[in-house]
Design brief:
Blueprint: H1 22-25, H2 43-51, H3 63-75, H4 87-107, H5 109-119, H6 133-147, H7 152-178, H8 184-206
Helix pairs in contact: 3-4, 4-5, 5-8, 6-8, 7-8
C-alpha cells in the first residue's frame, strides 16, 4: 500500500497580517516593516514604498507568474487540508478567501488600477465619469455599433478596436503609476476610461446572432 502523507499540522497555518499588501502576499515585494519600526508610517504609506520598487509602480505584472504564485499560496491553506480541525479550518477558509480576492484584484488590469488608486487614497467614486468628450463619443459610437451588429464580422471589428484602446490605456496607466511621484489624476482618468472599455468588451464577448446587446456604462 502506498504511503499516504500526513495531514498538515495545525502549526503550518498562521494568520496572514491584516495590513499585508496584495503584492507582498504573493512575494512580489518584501513585506513592509511593522508600523512601530517604520517611523510611525501608516499601512498605506508603507505599501506605497513597496510599490515604488516595482515596474510601473506595481501596475506592470507578469500575469502568468502571478497565477503560479497564486496556486502556490493557495496550496498552503486549502480548506480541504484542514477539514475537522475546528478553528484552524475556519482560518483556512478566511485565508483562502483573502488570497482569492487579492489574486482577482491584481490579475485584472482594471481591478489592479482600482486597487492602486485606493492605496493612494484616490479611489474612483460612483459619480466619476469619463471627462474626455472625444473619447466618450467614440465609446458611444462603438456601443451603438455593437448594439446594432448583425454579423460576427461586425462584432469582431468592435472587439479589435476596443482591445487596442484597452492596451493603450494600460500603457498609460503603467506610465502614470510608475512616475515619481505617481500621476494619480491621470491614472484615475485612465481607470475610468478602462471601466467603459471593459463594459464594451464584456458585451462584445456575450454577443449572439439575433440577440440585441445592451451595453451599460
Amino acid at each position: 500500500m502506498p504511503h499516504m502523507p500526513h495531514p498538515p499540522s495545525t502549526r503550518s497555518l498562521v494568520p496572514i497580517p491584516t495590513d499585508v499588501s496584495y503584492y507582498s502576499l504573493f512575494d512580489l515585494t518584501p513585506p513592509s516593516p511593522a508600523a512601530d519600526s517604520a517611523g510611525g508610517q501608516s499601512n498605506q504609506e508603507r505599501i506605497r514604498r513597496e510599490l515604488s520598487a516595482l515596474e510601473g509602480g506595481g501596475y506592470v505584472l507578469d500575469t502568468r507568474d502571478l497565477r503560479s504564485r497564486f496556486f502556490k499560496r493557495q496550496q498552503g491553506c486549502h480548506p480541504d487540508s484542514y477539514t475537522g480541525q475546528g478553528k484552524v479550518y475556519e482560518l483556512a477558509l478566511d485565508q483562502s478567501s483573502f488570497i482569492n480576492k487579492a489574486y482577482s484584484a491584481l490579475a485584472d488590469p482594471l481591478s489592479r488600477a482600482q486597487y492602486l488608486l485606493e492605496i493612494y487614497g484616490n479611489p474612483i467614486g460612483e459619480t466619476d465619469s469619463l471627462d474626455d468628450p472625444a473619447l466618450l463619443m467614440e465609446v458611444m459610437e462603438a456601443r451603438e455599433e455593437l448594439e446594432d451588429a448583425e454579423t460576427e464580422e461586425e462584432v469582431e471589428r468592435v472587439k479589435v478596436s476596443n482591445a487596442e484602446h484597452i492596451q493603450t490605456a494600460m500603457q498609460g496607466l503603467a506610465r502614470a503609476f510608475g512616475s515619481d511621484p505617481p500621476d494619480l489624476g491621470r491614472a484615475k482618468s485612465l481607470a475610468i476610461e478602462m471601466q467603459y472599455l471593459k463594459n464594451l468588451e464584456r458585451a462584445a464577448r456575450e454577443w449572439q446572432p439575433g440577440k440585441r446587446v445592451q451595453v451599460v456604462h
